[in-house]
Amino acid sequence: MSPRVRVATVVTRFEAGAGEVALRGALALDPDRYPVTVIAGSGNRLLDEAAAAGLEVVLEPSLRSPIAPRDDIRALRRLTRLLGARRYDVVHTHSAKAGTLGRLAAHRAGAGRIVHTFHGLPYHEFQSASRRGTYIGIERRLGRITDVALCVGTGVAVEVVRRRLVAPERVRTIGVATGGAATPRTPRTRAAARHALGLPVDATVVGAVGRLAYQKAPEDFVAAMVALHRPGTVGVWIGGGPLAEQVRAAAARALPQARVVLLGERPDVREVLPAFDVFALPSRYEGLPVAIVEAMTCGVPVVATAVNAVPDVVVPGRTGLLVPPQRPDLMATAVGHLLDHPDEADRMAAAARDWLGDRFGDQRLGDALVAAYAPPRCAPSRTDQETPCA
């Protein structure tokens, strides 16, 4: 019988894309062999889903996204104490803050294996050069104590290797898991989804799904809807976040040139995606958004910004259209093109659905985790970045 591998999954916010991928991965594992404890700073419905599925859930409120020295020091101490007492075989961290504090705590606690998932990167072109350099330096130091780096998307993996954040032989590229099949877009499901969202059946709907946060640039979505300048078109954003009031105010100012509706968090995203005529995501930076994959699986044509791993799935002119970040005018032009050329939009949507196939099934993610959690046949020091394991 194979030995049990006790896993601690550490994530700052157990919500949105990173939380979905962390949960889907944990649920794809054999629970008898891989008992998983989720350690999170906060969360939403995913915490309930994890508990209902039999996963142990531990909340650590001091683990917060903003840089807060007192909370960060407290979280590091508490995580080190918890991981040391539980003596997990694998500590698997997700995203920037949990990745920093969780890996340091795991290293101090003597964890058997440290795995980190880059859902995106903590630095980007919209930061100052000094801040970006600081983050890169931190990630390089953390890379020395990381056994395996799982990168969500090729674009993220390429950047991790190019910036020498983790030794190349420890870098793996993974996809995302959507947790089930999306509802195909048909006239019937389109009407049902619009009824569920309270939208007119005959309206043109441009939709987005994501946190109302700086990364996702929701204000550019509002600006794109204004630039689109199409009476009778409704912009719909599903998701909540810290910029909710700011974006709501921007949507109010956009009237009557554009109508933008903020629907907040919803547990039925996969079921209501058929309501959209075009899916548009204006992110400044990304990993590989679960929402884009779900929209493409559903059969909704996509316009997205050309950032990080998004081009893994949105191939310009083949499976969707790409535009530069922070150019809502160009996003409006691309959305308008798909609305004006429905045959071309349908062709891209069909090509996207066919190309995705089963690339992002839960089992594929589970297999990647099993491989990452398995110790190599030899065990070089984590700090030796130049000597690969034979």
From TrEMBL:
InterPro entries, per the entry: Glyco_trans_1, Glyco_trans_4-like_N, Glycosyltransferase_grp1
Gene3D superfamilies: Glycogen Phosphorylase B (3.40.50.2000)
Keywords in alphabetical order: Glycosyltransferase, Transferase
PANTHER family found in the cross-reference section: SULFOQUINOVOSYL TRANSFERASE SQD2 (PTHR45947:SF3)
Glycosyltransferase subfamily 4-like N-terminal domain residues: 17-174
UniProt keyword Transcription, yes or no: no
Domain Glycosyl transferase family: 193-355
Organism expressing this protein natively: Pseudonocardia acidicola
Protein name: Glycosyltransferase family 4 protein
